[in-house]
Each structure stands twice: as structure tokens, then as C-alpha cells.
Model the fold of this input.
Amino acid sequence: VVAGVSGGSDSVALTLLLLDLSKHGGFTVAGLAHLNHGLRATADRDGSFCREFAGRLGLPLVVECVDVRARARENGLSIEDAARRVRYEFLARAAASLAAERIAVGHTQDDQAETFLLKLMRGAGLTGLGGIYPRRDGVVRPVLDATREQLRAFLTEAGVPWVDDESNDDVDNPRNRIRHRVLPELDRAAGASTRPAIARASSLIREDAQLLDQLSRERFEAVAKRGPDGLELDLAGLGGLPAALMRRVLLEAMRQVSGGREVGLEHVESVMAVVEARHGGVDVPGSRAQVHGRTLVLGQQKGSVR
Amino acid sequence: VVAGVSGGSDSVALTLLLLDLSKHGGFTVAGLAHLNHGLRATADRDGSFCREFAGRLGLPLVVECVDVRARARENGLSIEDAARRVRYEFLARAAASLAAERIAVGHTQDDQAETFLLKLMRGAGLTGLGGIYPRRDGVVRPVLDATREQLRAFLTEAGVPWVDDESNDDVDNPRNRIRHRVLPELDRAAGASTRPAIARASSLIREDAQLLDQLSRERFEAVAKRGPDGLELDLAGLGGLPAALMRRVLLEAMRQVSGGREVGLEHVESVMAVVEARHGGVDVPGSRAQVHGRTLVLGQQKGSVR
Done:
């Protein structure tokens, strides 16, 4: 396993816990991976800390610098979305270079609760509220059930330092406002920490989503086929689906032809309206959804070069 | 339709909007229904207001007084849960006495967002996050997509008074803290009102839940039957279900034998553990879940009279 490290308490604790766990066999820690996002004033300090940390543990460290802002511009993504994509692409390269089979990252129950509320307030629908997955696509999150407070207590007791990211205190950033303002008020309303409850809700939603995604994949295979003009979906088959499955089938179809662009719920809604009308068309990210007879074709947009 | 009225802005606006809408035909307003929960200091004032309001509109008014605290004690419910049950039982009686086919209540988008966050912080899982249904079990909620602010602006413009419930300002009450503290902070994080986003998430979860509930009912019919000792569930059939369906089938089974007691997620979890072990048993609300050979029997608890 390769561990992604920022130098913060979560990833430093993750690394130590992984090393401890690896003594029981079953896996080894192949090394650490640190990405300089080109976003923080403290990037150099964080990089130095990680080099020293890896050196002290006798572990190889893979470091890369990327321009997240440029990536965000290129793909029409928010800085947070671009940073996430760039980070996992980097971690996959780091894993390959260290011959690691898994990537471990230090998300905590705090991240889970914050992510849930962030997605909620932004109108997350089909997949967002499932939040952060404990294991998925080769990435594992062994400290997802631990709180940040628990990990910091563990490091303090072990006498291990970490670096603080001052940008985490800026409440103009939505995630930080959720951390420092919204969650404490929600805790007060509940009379206890609400992180475990939010994490559990998130986990149940993932469980539901897993089944619905599986059913949707089966339906997708049944109604979709590649045609000369793009991806073709059978309108009669689509129309017979319950809304929960139709949304997911349309989302999957649009993702397949989006060329990496973000597909949102509003695009699903607009294509659903076309499916219900069985007539007309609408532009969606990277393609156009157009009714041709008994088929919905997701193909190239008008005006684009064939 | 009979409209449930408290005297607050939401139900007063609901009544006027229903009367307006009824001019276009399709339904008539059979009357109003007001419940005195025996909880508020302002109950007499609210009752008088509703009598006067109904009189001014020339509509019959059904009034009842109930002791919600006693009901909460009897059924081991929270005051809020007991009040909700008592209210809908009363509204059903009021509808019957007025020969109304539907019950209309004044829930708003604000209630939807508050309910979602309340359920979330309390660890709602399977069904809770779907929030408030626009129409269900003979109850309709025509102003669920409107905000409280919109309804008050409408009343102010129309020159129609309503009564304020001062208990809504007490932030020691969890719902009020969510209304006055949590939601405004969440709005600040998002840079806009988050009520529409939460309402949309809630609506998507309802859509998903509708399909999963339907699939679960089919599975329940396949694995459950009445036996001499109680409700019998086939362990092999249960064991083969995806977790999302197993939880719902077990919840439905426990509800059928709970005698009206609240069945929670923690009970589902404990019975799932018994199903996985295929051995042993556990007490759940109103019954005991016990493995007998290839069957899980939900029957009377040990020590209870047969």
C-alpha cells in the first residue's frame, strides 16, 4: 500500500497506524506520496515536513507538483473538484511507481460529515450523499471511522508532530464554515456529536446506492447500444423504468459521452423531460441528446466537426 | 379536503390558497380541523383564533383536546413523535366527520429542510431522510415547495393575520436550533438559501426509497409467513438479500409484531447480526427474534404470558 500524505494530522496518523498494522502481515507499506497542489502558501513547508517524516520512517517518498488552477480552468471544474481529480491521478501514478496495489488516504469521520453537508447544500442527489467510500477503485480509507480529535490525541500521546494548514481556519471557505460553524451548532441541537449519526446515514445511503447502481447497470445494458451517430437508448425501455433507475441510466449514458466533463442532476432532469416528451433534444456536457424515432441518441453537438 | 390549522402563518396561508384553488373545481374545502395538544401556554388563544378564522370564512371547524404527554408516556415516544401521531389520528377523525376524502396540512420547504437535518443528526437511516412526503396516506401538502417567508409575504399582502408561536423561538428545542442557528450558517457556507437543495435531495431519496420499499415488499412476501409461534422468516432467503433490502425486510417484519412501538435502526442491526450468525436471538420492541433451525421467528418475548 502507498499512503497519501499532506503532512496534516490525519495522514501522519494514518501512516503510523498502517505501519503498526503491517506488522501483523497481510500487507506492507511501499512508501508515501505527497502532492504539491500549487495552492497553499505553506506548500514548501509541507513538502519539507513530508520528506523528513518519510526519511525518519525509512520509507520512499514520491513527490509531484501540479497546477490545480490550470486544470480547473481546462475542465470547467471548481478548485476543489479539480484538486480531488489531480490528487487521485497522482496517487495512482505513485502507486504504480512503488508497485503498490492499494492507495491509503487519511479521510476521517469529520471529513465524512463535512462532505455530506457540503454535497447536501449543493443539491447532491444520486450519488453525492453516499459521501466518502471506505474502499473503492483501489483506494482504502482505514481511519474513516475515527475522528480528527482521536487521531490528534494519538499523535500527541506518541509525541509525533504534524503541520497545521492555516487555510483550514478561513470560514469564507464553505468546507471550513461547515467544520467550524455548522457542525458545532448541529452538535448543540443534538446534545452530542452528530458526526457518527451523519456517517451512519451516509453509509446506509451508500448501501442503497450500491443496489440501485447495480440494477441501473443491468438496465443500462438492456436499453443502450453503440450506433453510427453515438450512444443509442431505446425510448420504450427507458420510459418503463422507475424514476430512481431512469435517472441513473441517463447519468451513466451522459458520463460515457461527456469526455470527462461534469454531468449534473440538472442535465439528468433536462434529458428526462425529452424522454417523457419522446420528442426534441437538448445539449448536455460534451454531447447532444436527441430523439430519433424510437431512440434517444447521445451524439455530437450541432455545429461540432464530425 | 379538510385543512389542519394551528393558527400559524403556514396553515392560515394553506387555507386561503386551498379556498382559492377550489374555485377552479375538482375539490371543495369541507372544513378546518384544530387540535389542542395540551402543550402550549398559548393553546386557548390559538383555539379562539381558529374559531374566529373559520367563522369569517364560513367553514365548519372541528376541535379536539388531547393529552400528548400522556400518550408519549404510554407508548414510550418522544413528545414530538407522540404529537405527530396524535395529530394525524385526530385529522383522520375530523376528515371522517366532515366526509372529507383528503387531509391538507401546511408543511413548507422550511419544515422539509428542518426535518431532514433533525432526522440526519438523530441517525435516521432507512426511511427518515426521505423527509416529508408531498402526498401520502390520504394527506396532501400543497405548500411543501413554498417557503415560510413566501407564505407570510402572501398573508401580509392580503392583510390576513396569524398567530405566532413563541415556543418556536426557544433554541433549547432541537428543531428551533436548526431553524435559527444551523440553517442560517449552512446558508452562509453556500452563499444562498440551502432549503431548495435540501428539499431536492430529500425528494431524490424518496424516489430511491420508493423503489427499494417496493422491492422489499416483494422480498418480504417471498420470505415471511405466519406460523404458530409468530412471524417466520426463511433464513436462506433473508441471507441472499443485498443489505439494502435485508434491512427493509427486517424492519417491516419487526413493525408487524411491534404492537405500535417504535422500531429503530439499532434493532435492525441486532437482528441482522442474528441472521448472519444463523444462531441465537435478541429482544426487539414487542417481540423476540429467535433462530429455530432454518427459520427466524419473531414471536413473544420470554417471560411474557402466552
Notes: The two ends of chain B are 44 Å apart (CA to CA). Chain B touches chain A at residues 117-118, 120-126, 129, 174, 177-178, 181-182, 185-186, 188-191, 194, 196-198, 200-201, 204-205, 207-212, 214, 242-245, 247, 265 (CB under 8 Å). The mean pLDDT of chain B is 91.
